[in-house]
C-alpha cells in the first residue's frame, strides 16, 4: 500500500488552492510615504516554453494605503531585467486597465504577468500617484523582486 504522506496535497476548492499558493509564494515588500507595496511571484509552468526561450511568471501586488488621505494610481514605470542583464523599460497608465482610487487605510490588489527569454531575472518600478483633494503628486516604489524558474541551475536573486 502506498504511503499517503508522499502523495501531493491537492485542494478541491480553487480558492483554497490559490490562498495556499499565495501564502507560500516569495514575498517582497517596500514602504514609501506610508504606502506599502507587497509583491508575490509565481512561476507559470503551463505558459512557459523553455525550449523556445519563453519563461513566464505571474505576480500579485497589494498596495496598502497607510496615509490619512485617499490617492489615485495614475501611472506606472517598470524596469525589467533578464538573466543576461538586458533591461526593458515599460511605462503606462494605471495597472491592468485601471487607475484605482485607494482610500485611507484601504488596499488595492491586482495580478499581472511577465515573460522573459531567460530562466531568471528581476523587476522593480514606481507607481505615480495623485491625491485628488490637494492635487499633490508623489511616487511609490515597487520593491525589486526576482523572477526565478526551475530551469535555472541555482537561484541568483
Q: Strand share of the residues?
A: over 45%
Query: Which of globular, elongated, flat, extended, rod-shaped describes the shape?
Result: globular
**Helicity, in percent?**
under 10%
Assembly state: single chain
Q: What is the overall pLDDT average?
A: 89
Largest sheet: 5 strands, antiparallel
Structural class label: mainly beta
Q: Flag low-confidence runs.
A: 1-8
Computed Rg: 18 Å
Number of distinct helices = 1
Instruction: Say how many strands there are.
Output: 9
Order of helices and strands: HEEEEEEEEE
Give the terminus-to-terminus CA distance. Answer: 41 Å
Give keywords.
globular, 157 residues, mainly beta, 1 helix, ApaG_domain, five-stranded antiparallel β-sheet
Characterization of this structure:
This protein is mainly beta and 157 residues long. It contains 1 helix and 9 strands, in the order H-E-E-E-E-E-E-E-E-E. The chain has one helix spanning 14-24, and strands at 27-32, 35-43, 55-65, 71-82, 87-93, 101-102, 107-116, 120-130, 137-148. The strands form 2 sheets. Strands 4, 5, 6, 8 and 9 form a 5-stranded antiparallel beta sheet that branches. It has a 4-stranded antiparallel beta sheet with strand order 1-2-3-7, with no helix packed on it. Strand 4 and strand 5 form a beta hairpin. The N and C termini lie far apart (41 Å). The model is unreliable at 1-8 (pLDDT under 50).
Compact summary:
This protein is mainly beta. The protein has one helix at about 15-25; strands at about 25-30, 35-45, 55-65, 70-80, 85-95, 100, 105-115, 120-130, 135-150. Strands 4, 5, 6, 8 and 9 form a 5-stranded antiparallel β-sheet that branches. Strands 1-2-3-7 form a 4-stranded antiparallel β-sheet, with no helix packed on it.
